[in-house]
Design a protein that fits this description.
- This protein has 173 residues and is α+β, with helices and mostly antiparallel strands.
- The chain has one domain (11-141).
- Helix content is 13%, strand content 29%.
- The protein is built from 4 helices and 9 strands.
- It has helices spanning 41-44, 46-49, 64-69, 83-91, and strands at 11-17, 23-33, 53-63, 98-104, 109-110, 113-114, 128-129, 132-133, 135-141.
- It has a 3-stranded antiparallel sheet with strand order 1-2-3. The protein has a two-stranded antiparallel ribbon with strand order 4-9.
- A hairpin with a 5-residue loop joins strand 1 (11-17) and strand 2.
- The N and C termini lie far apart (65 Å).
Length: 173
Amino acid sequence: MLENKTTTEVRVDQILSTSNPDVFTLVLRQEIKKPESSGDLGFFMPGIVGSNLEKRVAFRNVDATFIEMYNIYESENDNTCFFADQIATVVDKAVNCKIVIEETHNQRTWDGGEQQPKVNPKTGDVLTKNGNPIYRNTWVTFDMTEEDTYIAHDKATVKAPSAKAVATEDIPF
């Protein structure tokens, strides 16, 4: 696993075992620059806004044959496993891929579990649109025209407490 490193290409970050010894889960990661949507803050305040990177992760189940055929391995600090490059080597042509994000109101469920909605990382509040929870799905695609789908969440309305006059003796004028 890479530490403190980002890549714009999809990389294999981890290979996780599953209950089936022939099936593994690839943890795929990609960092991309977010589109500038807040004006020019990123330009004038890079120390505060930061690099404005969106960290994406997708999970893909594969079998042992796939891992062996495409020589898939976990990325390390000195050796990054770029997913598309590993496939391109075998199919003998250039391959591109990316991680796509789709936000929806449809919750995925499976035996023994259910998808958790998006939450505000600062408050822990569930993010909603018109009161409906938002769920985030990601996957790796080789269709480079496939676009992300986002749902703008409801904005919380916070009312400031009203100011009350207080009598005090500590102001000399």
